Amino acid sequence: MKSDFEDYVIDAKLHIETTGRDDRYSDPHIYPYEATTYTVLDRLIGSGLIGDSDCLLDYGCGKGRVPIYLSHRTGCRSIGIEYIDVFYKKALCNLSSYRKYYPDHPCDIRLIEASAASYAVPDEVTRIFFFNPFSVEILTAVMKCLLQSCYDHQRNVLLFFYYPQDAYMAHLTGLDELSFYDEIDCTDLFTEQDSRNRIMIFEVTGQAL
After folding, report:
1. pTM score, whole prediction
2. Cα separations (Å) of 167 from 53, 114, 140, 171?
3. Which residues form the domain of 185?
4. Domain assignment present for 109
5. Would you say residue 12 lies in a domain?
6. Roughly what angle, to the nearest 10 degrees, separates helices 65-74 and 85-101?
7. Tens of pLDDT along 38-68?
């Protein structure tokens, strides 16, 4: 696919290695590693919803593509959370390589090895990205941590769900503290027609603040 080639090209420009799929460490709650394509991330960047004043949190950051690229392109601070040790160590290597070749890029990128379900969301986080990293059971725990953070530190928070599962959407639309904000259509970026190729955006509403 064209997007596969583009992913390799951009990885090479950033001096990182994030392509491919890896399901060796998956189970019913932790889903296989597969990085979001750069074309989708570019579509998100083009929305203007992430800027240099934001702090992005990426759940299930894998080998680090999303936190590195979005910080590189938008200047945002970013935090990547990864539970699988093998992927976390690869993400650290990628970040080290990126910084070696872009020493002057004003980026604040942090990678943390942690369980998403118990991770306390920092009060600086204003944007959160998900690409189906885990089951809806873990998502439920994650949302409790996020909403607690928003109760404690009031701020505008947008959540980006790429290629969302039906179970995710059912859970999210049932939360009074969230409201649907917008969607970014990405179906034209792929040869296969799949209505799930979109980014669904939710906002933490005043009911949680």
Report:
1. 0.93
2. 32, 24, 11, 6
3. 2-6+29-208
4. yes
5. no
6. 30
7. 999 999 999 999 999 999 999 999 999 999 9
